[in-house]
Amino acid sequence: xxxxxxxxxxxxxxxxxxxxxxxxxxxxxxxxxxxxxxxxxxxxxxxxxxxxxxxxxxxxxxxxxxxxxxxxxxxxxxxxxxxxxxxxxxxxxxxxxxxxxxxxxxxxxxxxxxxxxxxxxxxxxxxxxxxxxxxxxxxxxxxxxxxxxxxxxxxxxxxxxxxxxxxxxxxxxxxxxxxxxxxxxxxxxxxxxxxxxxxxxxxxxxxxxxxxxxxxxxxxxxxxxxxxxxxxxxxxxxxxxxxxxxxxxxxxxxxxxxxxxxxxxxxxxxxxxxxxxxxxxxxxxxxxxxxxxxxxxxxxxxxxxxxxxxxxxxxxxxxxxxxxxxxxxxxxxxxxxxxxxxxxxxxxxxxxxxxxxxxxxxxxxxxxxxxxxxxxxxxxxxxxxxxxxxxxxxxxxxxxxxxxxxxxxxxxxxxxxxxxxxxxxxxxxxxxxxxxxxxxxxxxxxxxxxxxxxxxxxxxxxxxxxxxxxxxxxxxxxxxxxxxxx
Length: 486
Known about the structure:
Blueprint: H1 2-19, H2 26-34, H3 44-48, E1 52-55, E2 60-63, H4 72-76, H5 84-88, E3 93-99, H6 110-120, E4 126-132, E5 140-145, H7 165-173, E6 178-183, H8 185-196, E7 209-215, H9 223-232, E8 240-246, E9 249-254, E10 259-263, E11 288-291, E12 300-304, H10 307-318, E13 322-326, H11 329-344, E14 354-355, H12 376-385, E15 388-396, E16 401-408, E17 414-425, E18 428-440, E19 445-451, E20 458-465, E21 468-476, H13 477-485
Parallel strand pairs: 4-6, 6-7, 7-11, 14-19
Antiparallel strand pairs: 1-2, 3-12, 3-13, 4-5, 8-9, 9-10, 11-12, 15-16, 16-19, 17-18, 17-20, 20-21
């Protein structure tokens, strides 16, 4: 018996050493799995760790000692994703690369260089790419190109859905046999289904050879939605030189040298709804996948997924179209971590946001209504219930818009919730925006954007249901502005 325990402890220590530095701890398990309602109550985490036990009252794991952050509990959970092929798909090799043809691409210009090589060498009869509309700047136009000199207008990302399958099928109908296809994961998945499914359109059409070049994609946005966002910032698509996403921020580089930056999640109201349910970051069904994550500025990360793609990439490098180097494992970790975030959105309802307000109408009150302060007893009672959390409080001084998010953290559905948000000064309402929600799901987020005319005012937020007060909070606009500058 002693020998068996010793061997188990040895195995435990070996695994802990392998996972060291992964930051997969009890806190991460609670945040991603338990507190989001994904926990399946198997208790594997508690079974694997000496300082964890299963609490039969709360039906969740709890610490009985100090967590060392070894990550064993996180990696035993059946709901976590820790195996690399499960996160970024199967691949044969990983590289970082850049083009050598002076292409003004999004990052390393690898996609344009690969297609240029394929067209010049006669490997491709044509390529399906996305260009930008001349009439409506930055509006995507899916296009068939058959000459490498026609590729220049297709470089650079637009972050808007492009219907690239339409010119692809037309090209096949017109007799093109070998076609390079560039697309985001959803486009690549569509083509894969057409090719591989028994009911796919080109499944039995042996004359069609499609080389799938997949792009890394976290989110796609509405063209008109981003147009509206730019207009709120007194700009238009005509003013934009380049779009890019870097370090969690959407960046518009303007022709006048200025930039507009917003956190990507701050633009969620303009995001395609399908992105809330997409779990594919790296175009897992492509022949070769390309993106910026994990590579230095001016370079691209390349995941080669089959022998043909590997041969094409190496030959393009040999012929001087691009240069490549092996991607270090530490750099690949950036891709893996971002892919894990996207995989989790499939079962994490917190990523599926409900937008109650974009910009509420300015409702002027006929008479100033006196606001009575919430009693200390009511606030304490609400705090003990721990039903609702207020987060992401941001005030934009340019647009004078206060954005905030309230989250149902109760772990249960709340019924008949009254939400009262009012702009208050000296205990009198200036404006008010009441909302009633019949059913509020666990961990569902409600995001508001509230116009503020008087910077000396406050915003009072009160939520209640049939059982009483859920949340009462005052937001001082001046203090919020000072905090954002510090």
